[in-house]
Give the backbone structure.
Amino acid sequence: MLSLFRKTSQLVRRRDAVFGINRRNVALVYPHNPRRYYPLADDKILAKERMSALGVPVPDTLAICPTLGHVAPFVSTLTTLDNFVLKPARSSGGRGLIVVADRSPEGGWLTVSGSKLSPSELAHHTANVVYGVFSKDRADRAFAEPRIVPHPVFATLWSRGLCDIRVITLNAKPVMAMVRVPTHRSNGKANLHQGGLGLAVDLDTGRTFRALSGGKTVAVHPESKAPLLGVELPVWDEIVRIAKLAAESVPLGYLGVDLVVDESSRCWVLEINVRPGLEIQNVNGKGLGPALERVS
Amino acid sequence: MTWALLVLPVLALFIGAYKVRSFDASFKELLPEARYNVALRMNLDGHQESVRVTTFLPNTNPRQTVSAEQNNAPGLEFESELKGLSRKVSWRGSSVPNDTSVEYMFGVTSRAIHFNLEPGIPLPNSYPTSLTPYLVADEHIQVDDPQIRSKLREIGADTGSVTLRLERIYSFVSGLKVRPFKGTTDALTALRLGEASCNGKSRLLVALARAGGIPARLVGGLIMQTGERRTTHQWAEAYVAGHWVPFDTTNAHFAELPAHYLTLYYGDEVLFSHTKDINFKYHFDVETSLVPTAEAKAVLGRFNVWALFERLGLPFSLLRTVLMLPVGALVVVLFRNVIGMPTIGTFLPALIAAAATETGPLWGMLGLLIIVLCVCATRWALNSMQLLHSPTLAILLTVVTVAMLGTSMLAEQLGAAQLTRISLFPVAVLAITSERFYLLWAEEGLRDAVKQLAGTTLVILACYLVMNSLALQVLIIAFPEVLLLVIALDIYLGRWVGMRLSEYLRFRGLLKQPTPA
């Protein structure tokens, strides 16, 4: 009887360390992120403009397509480029993202996954982006960025695209971090719900200590067999510094900052999220509760 | 927030109590009552010859009100005559074709009755001569048979007060096994076999009552329960202290009758008689809806939303839908925020469930299925054209509309009367649903779209069950201030930080006992 009670209270304690969506919204997002500032994070173009003005390193914006009328000039600007990344300004979870790796010998381009992309297909995709297909049905803008070549440490984990680093911050203090590694199963997307890997990162040392693939802990990449544990991330102090800087640049207290490190060890902030996902808890093997207490 | 949780329920209770008290009405009188829409549907093969079908239709009496009668029998002549207290009607025609349908519809409001039989009511020395027919033997009611007489003595129903006699007869007949015999069982057979269907039991009760000196008669009728009814029912009435008091030994009603009993005829009659060899079939379709009581209409005056709807000429069912929608939304909130079930849109499940109240939940599901098929077909057909989204959605809406009408037309051809009602499904709800599902598919991929569709289907069913609960409808229509409680619950859920049920599954790894390193 007593042991049952003890077990139950232990379960309740463990549960209370974990943040569900209701608690994240009521206890973290609503009090720390005033809704009127959401566009500063939700709109990647606005976020980049603001961050770059405040000295946060963000990738250049090569071209912007604000309306359906601008699709044609937008695409013709891009035809001058060998590689680029096309993004919807307000999509989330990597939706609507196209990474162009090279020109195709038969005209048009090749995407990072190896499929062909003609200018007319790109125009159609851009029009869909502008219509809001990838942005919860709101009219959106499309923009293009240079394709970032990843640092060798990340290229070892996944050679065909970008691994990104997610740092959760509360009042610009890092709370928890992970690296998201794409797989073939996730179609090259660093999305944990679509088969991507999550690597937990120790905030103090910048070393990975836990890896999760499809809900199970793993030690190596299930496809490339690259070791995932004990990996020392390059320029970790710089990553943390830039993440803090990015968090300070907006009047939003609870954020998920997404960064990448390029081949010459430079850090870039790709985007910031006002409602960062909760899967990072599963990746780290612990709830956000104690980690949040530590920084507040 | 806390103040709202406190103030809103108190306010709701206060308004409710004020209404009941200031209008000098009882709580029960303000609750709406059931209205039954009954359709008697018959089918026969006339073989191009003369045909006659005779039956009984209900009369208005102090317990039941019959209204909005509608005879729908093209090519047949309808006649009606009073036979005692019953209304005997017939449809007649010459050279009647095969597969002829006869439809007679009417509305019924009725109330339950209950008699308190004083224990000491004495057996009168004599009755008026008009009651003589209810004391003597009939063909199937063998009052004078020695076996009936001796059973009467055996159960002690031949002495004492009227109440005592009836109680003993009732308890004896109730004790007989119920068995769904087909056809007529007379009183004596029921007694000999010790088991009978409703008509055998009722005849035995009438025979014993008459033998015991209490006038009694058979009553035939319909138990009005929503849906298709192929069987009718019989019970009995005994004349006690100037009143005809009902007894139904089959369903255990002593000196009482529930509201959903519809009296069709009195006496030992056959409900349907017709020309031979016409392959005669019949059934009753019963629908139940709520209508305000006369008392409620009278006392509520300006506070009455019913009166407002009546002045505006809006149907009562619309009021019901409007008032139940917030409850449906609350159900959706529970599913999304407490259970963690993904749904397409927040209010869409409640809206679809509301739309399905006119057609039934199955047709709501079918409507949803048609939408999904339309979305699939449209995507497949338009995919190679690479159209922009707005025109695609406009085409989709057209496809949905045509599919709905097409289904109705096909249903009519096939004679599936119920299915034709699919067109009743509000096109606005369908349009929103198809658009949301299409965009969901484009945005999140098929897997997530199907997942959310499954969640939506489940939540629609839950919404339908809750929104169509008669008890809840009665409460909210009479006391719309209950919606303040709904708001209070919404506020509570709006600040509820508990883990969703689905998250226990999602974070199960974090909830497990950590293994010591």
In short: Chain B touches chain A at residues 337, 340, 386, 388-390, 439, 442-443, 495-500, 503-504, 506-507, 509-511, 513 (CB under 8 Å). The mean pLDDT of chain B is 84.
